[in-house]
Write a structure and sequence with these properties.
Helix content: 55-70%
Strand order of the largest sheet: 2-1-3-4-5
CATH class of the largest domain: Mainly Alpha
CATH topology of the largest domain: Hypothetical protein af1432
């Protein structure tokens, strides 16, 4: 048997073998049989000692005696295979037992190979060689998969950044038409994030509504300045024209392929719909209105009440909350999704904090 030609390629140098045997002379015999030219060794005289050493250093392969006081080989193997750090380390069990039941117990604990005592040097070498070859191949594959996952994550992050840049560009364009847009859309993002969190929405939904909600009024780009910037109340015709900003916004956004833009289109189209069906542009009711739009609708109402306009003064947080939660004839609790309305009631103080931190 020629050990000079190692059949594996370990980039970190010599493979490390851990020998677990309560008899020191048995561990010395194994080292003599395998040699020190290609291996470094860790030696433990009990299962407990081995598990303690493994907290500090991990070997490439473990050779484990079956019969030991305290933790026996099967118990040690089971502990190794239940630990995420040591699960993939191959284990060779040394045993003088030849009965089928003992071997099945060891296999059920996760042992990869058996070597009978007394140990045959050629057989042991073959088992070690094959398991190390497999171990290093699996390690290379795992490293490759990790690199691929990192590359995918980075490309996904870059794509998300590009999508967000698109959102910011469109919102900045809208600011040129309406000077009140900037702070308003910032606050809408934060209101929506708080409500989505309170409603128990998943991280993906929270991320998307944070970036999509500022596009709710993007359609105002298409409204003539004479109407959009009018300081007084709208005429009936002007109001009908103003209401078209929902459809205009949806039309602007609906051809996008970004998840943010697609949610933005959904919000733009439906954020003036009401739970009781009295909203516009389609008079949708209940869950026929997409959830993101139901969330934005309440946030937009709150912020509009808090904001000063040429035709109205700014309301206090208490006044806005009273109208949303109790109604005033024009705005009623029935206009809002009951769950969104209740969530607002629970966290309304956060809305006040957001408004104050992002005031015009």
């Amino acid at each position: 048997m020629n050990l000079s030609d190692a059949p594996w390629h370990n980039p970190s140098g010599k493979p490390t073998l851990m020998l677990i045997d309560d008899q020191p002379r048995n561990a010395r015999l194994l080292q003599a049989q395998l040699g020190s030219e290609h291996f470094s060794y860790m030696v433990a005289q009990s299962g407990e000692d081995a598990l303690a050493q493994l907290q500090q250093r991990l070997p490439d392969l473990i050779i484990l005696d079956f019969m030991m006081p305290g933790m026996n080989g099967q118990q040690v193997a089971l502990s190794l295979k239940q630990d995420e750090r040591t699960r993939t380390i191959p284990v060779i069990m040394l045993t003088a037992l030849s009965d089928h039941g003992s071997r099945m117990q060891a296999l059920s604990a996760g042992v990869e190979e058996f070597v009978n005592k007394p140990v045959d040097q050629t057989e042991l070498w073959a088992r070690v060689r094959n398991l190390l070859r497999l171990k290093f191949s699996q390690d290379r594959l795992a490293d490759h998969n990790r690199r691929l996952a990192d590359e995918v994550a980075e490309r996904t992050r870059q794509l998300a950044d590009a999508y967000r840049d698109t959102v910011y560009t469109m919102v900045r364009a809208a600011e040129y038409k309406d000077e009140d847009t900037g702070s308003h859309v910032q606050r809408i993002s934060f209101y929506c994030l708080e409500l989505a969190d309170e409603l128990g929405m998943d991280p993906q939904f929270r991320d998307r509504i944070f970036y999509a909600s500022p596009m709710h009024d993007i359609g105002k780009i298409g409204i003539p300045d004479s109407v959009l910037l009018k300081p007084g109340a709208f005429s009936k015709e002007e109001w009908e024209m103003m209401k078209t900003h929902s459809a205009l916004g949806a039309e602007i956004l609906r051809h996008g392929n970004s998840p943010y833009v697609l949610m933005g289109a959904e919000i733009a189209q439906h954020h003036h719909e009401r739970w009781d069906g009295s909203g516009y542009p389609r008079g949708l009711a209940g869950e026929a209105i997409p959830l993101p739009a139901r969330i934005v609708m309440l946030c937009d109402q709150y912020d509009a009440m808090r904001s000063r306009r040429p035709y109205k003064p700014a309301w206090s947080h208490e006044q806005a909350c009273q109208v949303i939660l109790e109604g005033d004839g024009r705005t009623e609790p029935g206009h809002f999704d009951p769950e969104v309305w209740a969530a607002f009631g629970r966290i309304r103080s956060r809305f006040a904090d957001i408004f104050e931190a992002n005031e015009d």
